[in-house]
Amino acid sequence: MTVTHTLDELQKSTEGLSALCRQKFFGAAKELDAVITTDPAHVGYLSGYRSILQDVTLYAQAVIATPERLVLVTGASDAPAALERLSEPSAIWRYGLFYVSSAPGAKGYEEMPQHSASFSDALSAALCTFDMRGLRVGMDVRNASTAHGIQQSLSGASFVDPASAFRTSRATKLPGELHLMRHASRITDEAICGILPMIRPGTTELEIASEISRHMVRHGGIARFVVVTSGERSSRVDAYARHKVLQDGDLVRLDIGCTVEGYCSDMARTLCVGMPTDVQDSRYAALLAGEQAELAALRPGILAKDVYDIAMRTVRQGALPNYQRNHCGHGIGLHSHEFPLIGPESQTVLEPGMVFCVETPYYEIGWGGMMVEDTAIITDTGHELLTSSARALHQPSAIHP
């Protein structure tokens, strides 16, 4: 399996995506005239810009958007990178002091609004350029002080919680979003295929995690979680890889995800170092059967709770009759776990354009853990599988001499 298009082609295919996302959001939020968000995922969703600073510290950003206009409030050092996505300098409001020069004829700080001393000052200055008297404004702001400042700046507006509109807008994905998710899933799948020869005694968890991360980064992904746990450690949910050396008979549980332009992948496989025991084999067979039955059920019109019931019933017919699980999958998009959930109470009807991870994990402290997880897009007639690497517990390419 190989990446079938270049990163340049990927970028070209998704140009203008943020404008389409804004259009879709306001289509789902007909009661809103504007929205203000400080949520990093929604800043990226509406503007197309995702700051690396969000990965290293608590970082204040905001987007103010109407159907016709968008501005970004961000730190001064961030402005040149933001200008790559928001090609209009007047849309970027800076706070703080940072020095970046511009060559003759190049757009830069000089074309941007005057910088402010603080985030709140820059946000207030940007808000003053909007006339929102009598308008309904979505307030997607968790910080109480920031929300209070916005309300004071827009005293003539009424405020609405836009959470439902964001959830509705994000539940199904646009073609450009799906393109990014296909790429993210493909390079994650490839990364797992690439480490199969490393599943042998003497390899460490960290060596495997490093190779998985390398492949994803090389192909435009940002490694977000690389869970590689082996032996009894495979029961440790969402644990970091360690210098633990693989031994014959170990289970190796891989739960891997990256992002590409903000869009997530999430998949899992379990491998055995050498031949599995009868217990390992029978338990995994039950989990895999449940996950595959769940995957086969994905289609428009089915309830998410019914997909969950199919998975649970199938697993319990095998070697794990007392299997328990609070959910057997979840939506994926700007976050690796998002609405809708595939759970016992979920009344969500699956629709074309939704993207789901389906999974049937099992964890037993003192014994180990195993899981298989795949990602699929709901289509008009069924689903499109995004992760297709082999799911066998014992794979020939993992055999050690």
TrEMBL record:
Residues in Creatinase N-terminal domain copies: 29-170
Pfam families assigned: Creatinase_N, Peptidase_M24
Tree of life domain: Bacteria
InterPro entries, alphabetized: Creatin/AminoP/Spt16_N (IPR029149), Creatinase/aminopeptidase-like (IPR036005), Creatinase_N (IPR000587), Pept_M24 (IPR000994), Pept_M24_MAP (IPR001714), Peptidase_M24B (IPR050659)
Residue intervals of the Peptidase M24 domain: 180-380
Protein name as it appears in the record: Xaa-Pro peptidase family protein
Organism: Cupriavidus basilensis
